[in-house]
Write a structure and sequence with these properties.
The protein is of the alpha+beta class. It has a domain of 51 residues. It has 1 helix and 3 strands; from the N terminus they run E-E-E-H. The protein has a 3-stranded antiparallel sheet with strand order 1-2-3, with helices on one face. The longest helix has 8 residues. The radius of gyration is 12 Å and the shape is globular.
Length: 73
């Protein structure tokens, strides 16, 4: 898939206090676009085309992240 990112994702060192949530920003992409998520703990960002999946500090994938990840299948 061609890179449609309007800017690089933020990537910060993990502080092990992860809380992932949608930012409200959507980038152009397949299936209605790529929702951007960010970590309230460190400020890192994620979109579903990334090879990794965010987890919260308790070790669980947040429901909104799981729903977004499932859109790629």
């Amino acid at each position: 898939m061609p890179d449609t990112s309007p800017r690089p994702l933020e990537a910060q060192p993990c502080q092990s206090v992860c809380v992932w949530q949608p930012t409200g920003e959507t980038w152009p992409g397949p299936d209605g676009g790529l929702r951007v998520f960010d970590c309230l703990g460190c400020g890192s960002e994620w979109v579903r085309t990334e090879a990794w999946t965010p987890i919260d500090a308790g070790g669980a994938v947040p429901q909104a992240v799981a729903q977004e990840r499932a859109r790629e299948r």
